[in-house]
Amino acid sequence: MIEHIAWDDKYKVGHPMIDSQHQHLFELADKLYNVLEAGVAWERSHVEKLLQECAEYILFHFSSEEALMDEVEYEGAARENHLGQHRDFNQYVSSLLGKFFAGETVNLGELYSFIASWLVKHIVLEDKKLGEQVRIFLYGE
Questions:
Q1: What string of H, E and C letters represents the secondary structure of 45-76?
Q2: SS3 6
Q3: How far apart are CA 17 and CA 138, in angstroms?
Q4: Residue among 133, 91, 129, 123 nearest 22 (CA)
Q5: How far apart are CA 78 and CA 65, in angstroms?
Q6: Dihedrals phi, psi of 42, to nearest 5 degrees
Q7: Disulfide-capable partner of 127 in 3, 31, 38, 123 (CB 3.0 to 4.6 Å)?
Q8: Could you give the angle at the alpha carbon of 94 between the alpha carbons of 77 and 53, nearest 5°?
Q9: d(CA 121, CA 132)
Q10: pLDDT for 43-52, tens place per residue?
Q11: pTM surpassing 0.85?
Q12: How far is the C-alpha of 81 from the C-alpha of 23, rounded, in Å?
């Protein structure tokens, strides 16, 4: 059985745009979880559409975060580590999606578990640091 990981306000980083995008990422992950939990065979086209939506939104979100980093002058090792995690995530998910779109079998449970656990870990360990920089830069907190 796959552990369901749901949005919780404790994942807020303090920037409305980023928090809203994170919530949407959890909603997309929930859609994937629901496909898995339904226990029925879904049409490949339905799963393909969902995976494409996830991939596109993740790229949009990473782009938004990276633009925010520029805006608030988030630099140094913290930025490089953050960007490295984005790259690693993209490589892993792109590899699995590439296999799926090539007609290979992909373990959707593994994909969901990876996305959900990575998202929580990344928000708690990296995005919260970015949130602190945003509050300092924009609000002097």
A1: HHHHHHHHHHHHHHHHHHHHHHHHHHHCCCCH
A2: coil
A3: 14
A4: 123
A5: 13
A6: -90, 150
A7: 123
A8: 105
A9: 17
A10: 778 888 888 9
A11: yes
A12: 23
